[in-house]
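The protein record filed here.
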Amino acid sequence: MRNLLIACICMTCCGFVSASECSIGGFSAPEMKLASYYRSQTATSFNISCDRNYSIAFNSQNLVNSSGLSYVSNGPYRLRTQLNIRGASQNLWGVQMNQRAGMNQKYIISAQLQENPINGVPAGVYRDRIYVNVDF
C-alpha cells in the first residue's frame, strides 16, 4: 500500500508594535493524508482571530504554480496534486494576501491527487510540505 502524506506547518510572525490581539488555533489535523487512489482528497483547517488587518501566504515545498499545482514525491518519483485554499481572499499559492481583521476566520487547505498511483509508480511514502505564513 502506498502512503501519501502532506504535512502542514504553520509559522507566525507577530509584530509587537501595538497591543493588538491576534491568534491562530482550532487546527483540525496536523497532517493531511491522501489515499493511494486517483482523485483522493484530504483537508485540514484552522482559525485566525485578529483585531487588525494581517497578511497570509500559503506555500508548498513542491509548488509548481500560483494556482496550487504541486506534487508529492518519494525522491525520484512524483505524483501531481492540486492544492486549494478556502477562506482567503483568493486561491493563490506563494503570494502574500492581505486579509481584513476578524474573529475566527476559518481557512481550509485541501489537496487532491491528480494522477493515478497505480500506473507504474512504485510503492513508498510520497510527501509534500505546506507552509502557512501569517504576518500580524
